[in-house]
């Protein structure tokens, strides 16, 4: 246990008194040992700690609240993701949660967010479980002893999975909650052990602070850097390949999920990766596969019967199986996680309808339209009762984490794209030859080849043709990729069926965009698909 700071005094200032034991800044091996001793997890055959997060195996967006006060009242975009919570209700709930820790063991960790020291914030994470503290160690930036001595806490995260709210008294929707107070600079999490709530709580507050106060564009994206120092960023919702495609052995990984874009470059918010591991394999994703080792935290996976070997194909607990690990577990991670201004931006979508081309180059207007739309499609079977692909539109590829209006982020991205003359590409990592159930998933090797060709400038001088309906510019040739898959219509046996599906998807885009049309300029509006 570190003696640099006095964690008991820190807790007392926050209203947490009479804790049984306070464990401060423990190393991963100590946290793993404690988790095993408490029967809260088991070791996989590679030495990673495997835990079950219980009732919640993912975020609960409808139970995320922001305190509506003088800071947020006129700045937050109040909606289904940014649900208002009163100051009085927060104060009362805060007192109940802090009182809950009396007589319990408490884990405390001081860490940083934001790799660019100009924007760095100090984060104190207080948890009820040792493996939650391991998650915080993996995911945030780790201060050294000297930094610990002088660091200030800007934000505090308090996570109490065992505390269940009473909705009738506490003004929550149900017994779980995640509440952000920008005035008290506290994220209060209860009733859920899903660790992603900790990570996304900090992402949410940075999505407010950086654009609103620092004129820095916050982004839900991964990023990597080439040998020449060129930066590429990858936007995409969960399951589109954001983590997989940024973990390229030929390029340095800046980060896999959350970044800021300043006037001089891009920086990672985090110190680790939180990768989906459904169907993970050494062949398809070697960097992530090899990162599942001592210190990594596996969530909601299962083992092959009678073994401690992970069955990555098993979705019986959830499709959202996860692994967290420090960035240093990736051999080619960039340190510090700061890169140059991007030269290429990739919008990733897993189009389960098989309509969109595997790669297309976007005009600035199309780029803004696609960014504000934030489209992907879930395949049948990922949710109860879903038998057909299901479209998902999430503004700026991260609507649940955006406290400000999507137009704010879109405007900032548009300005940066034009100022820096950035190439923008739409990449479909989903289906070809028909929709899910008929066609097949585009091979990861082909997607990697297309992205490499774009980054290397090999698509600058090839011929392009425009698709009907969406008006996307498709390259006629891409090195290492069969030409016949580049135009999605050509891959369908039934061309009329393709045309009908394309028209249907275009209609969904148009209907979704109606709520943003008033804030969009003519160039963006003209980039909508044409039915």
For the structure shown, list the relevant keywords.
27% helix; alpha/beta; single chain; 28 strands; globular; 15 helices; 531 residues
Structural overview:
There is one protein chain. The chain has 531 residues and is α/β, with parallel strands linked by helices. Helix content is 27%, strand content 23%. The protein has 15 helices and 28 strands. Strands 11, 12, 13, 14, 15, 19, 20, 21 and 24 form a nine-stranded mixed sheet that branches. The protein has an eight-stranded mixed sheet with strand order 1-6-7-8-10-9-4-5, sandwiched between helices. Strands 2-3-17-18-16 form a five-stranded mixed sheet, covered by helices on one side. Strand 27 and strand 28 (473-475) form a beta hairpin. Helix 2 packs antiparallel against helix 4 (130-139) and helix 10 (364-373) runs antiparallel to helix 11. The longest helix has 19 residues, at 196-214. It is globular. The protein starts with 6 loop residues before the first helix and ends in a 6-residue tail after the last helix. The model is unreliable at 381-386 (pLDDT under 50).
């Amino acid at each position: 246990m570190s003696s640099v700071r006095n964690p008991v005094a820190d807790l007392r200032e926050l209203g947490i008194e009479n804790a049984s034991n306070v464990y401060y800044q423990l190393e991963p091996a100590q946290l793993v040992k404690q988790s095993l001793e408490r029967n809260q997890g088991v070791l996989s055959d590679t030495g990673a700690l495997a835990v079950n997060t219980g009732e919640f195996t993912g975020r609960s967006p409808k139970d995320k609240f922001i305190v509506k006060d003088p800071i947020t009242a006129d700045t937050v975009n109040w909606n289904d993701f940014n649900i208002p919570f009163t100051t009085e209700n927060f104060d009362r709930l805060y007192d109940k949660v802090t009182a809950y820790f009396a007589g319990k063991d408490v884990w405390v960790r001081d860490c940083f967010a934001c790799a660019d020291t100009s924007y760095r914030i100090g984060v104190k994470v207080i948890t009820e479980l040792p493996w939650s503290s391991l998650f915080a160690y993996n995911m945030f930036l780790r201060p050294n002893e000297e930094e610990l001595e002088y660091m200030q806490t800007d934000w505090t995260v308090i996570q109490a999975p065992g505390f269940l709210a009473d909705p009738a008294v506490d003004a929550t929707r149900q017994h779980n909650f995640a509440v952000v107070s920008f005035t008290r600079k506290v994220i209060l999490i209860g009733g859920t052990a899903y660790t992603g709530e900790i990570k996304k709580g900090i992402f949410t507050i940075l999505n407010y602070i950086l654009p609103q106060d620092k004129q820095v564009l916050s982004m839900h994206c991964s990023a990597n850097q080439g040998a020449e120092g060129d930066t590429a960023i990858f936007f995409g919702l969960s399951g589109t390949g954001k983590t997989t495609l940024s973990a390229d052995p030929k390029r340095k990984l800046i980060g896999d999920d959350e970044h800021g874009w300043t006037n001089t470059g891009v920086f990672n918010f985090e110190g680790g990766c939180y990768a989906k591991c459904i169907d993970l394999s050494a062949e398809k994703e070697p960097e992530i596969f090899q990162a599942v080792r001592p210190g990594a935290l596996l969530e909601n996976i299962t083992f092959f019967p009678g073994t401690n070997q992970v069955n990555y194909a098993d979705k019986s607990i959830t499709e959202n199986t996860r692994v967290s690990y420090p960035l240093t577990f990736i051999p080619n991670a960039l340190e510090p996680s700061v890169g140059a201004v991007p030269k290429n931006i990739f919008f990733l979508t897993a189009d389960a309808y098989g309509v969109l081309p595997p790669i297309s180059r976007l005009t600035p207007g199309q780029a803004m339209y696609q960014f504000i739309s934030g489209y992907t499609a879930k395949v049948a079977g990922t949710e109860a009762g879903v038998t057909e692909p299901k479209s998902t539109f999430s503004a700026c590829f991260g609507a649940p984490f955006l406290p400000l209006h999507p137009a704010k982020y879109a405007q900032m991205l548009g300005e940066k794209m034009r100022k820096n003359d950035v190439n923008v590409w739409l990449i479909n990592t989903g289906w070809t030859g028909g929709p899910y159930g008929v066609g097949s998933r585009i091979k990861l090797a082909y997607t990697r080849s297309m992205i490499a060709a774009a980054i290397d400038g090999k698509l600058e001088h090839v011929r392009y043709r425009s698709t009907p309906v969406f008006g996307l510019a498709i390259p006629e040739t891409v090195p290492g990729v069969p030409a016949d898959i580049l135009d999605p219509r050509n891959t369908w046996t039934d061309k009329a069926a393709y045309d009908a599906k394309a028209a249907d998807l275009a209609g969904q885009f148009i209907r979704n965009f109606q709520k943003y049309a008033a804030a969009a300029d003519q160039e963006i509006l003209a980039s909508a698909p044409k039915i």
